[in-house]
Amino acid sequence: MKKALITGVTGQDGSYLAEFLLEKGYDVHGIIRRSSVDYRERIAHLEGKENFHLHYGDMGDSMGLMAVISSVRPDEIYNLAAQSHV
C-alpha cells in the first residue's frame, strides 16, 4: 500500500486530495497545526477511517517535519500548506 503525506490537509485542496487518495487505496497521513483544531470540518468525515492518520506539525519547524517524515516514510509528499489570515 502506498503512503502519502499531505501538508495542509485541513484546507479545501488538501481534504479533496485526501479523499481521492483514500479511494485509490492509499494510506494517507496529514500534517495539521495544533491551532487548526477549530478548522477541521473539511476532514471530520475522514477522521476515524482506518487508513487516515493525522500528525501535528508546523511548517516553520524543520526538525519536527523531518521527524514526521522519518516516522511515516511516505512514498509521496504533497505540500499544500499555506498561511491563512482568518
Structural overview:
The chain has 86 residues and is α/β, with parallel strands linked by helices. It has two helices and four strands. The protein has a four-stranded parallel sheet, sandwiched between helices. The longest helix is centred in the N-terminal third of the chain and has 12 residues, at 12-23. It is globular.
Distance between the termini: 37 Å
Helix and strand run: EHEEHE
Percent helix, as a range, is 25-40%
Cα radius of gyration in angstroms: 12 Å
Largest sheet: 4 strands, parallel
Number of helical segments? 2
Q: What are the low-pLDDT stretches, counting only 5+ consecutive residues below 50?
A: none
Strands in their spatial order, largest beta sheet: 3-2-1-4
So what's the overall shape?
Answer: globular
Task: Tell me the β content.
Answer: 15-25%
State mean pLDDT (0 to 100 scale). 91
SS content category:
alpha/beta
Please report the total strand number as a whole number.
4
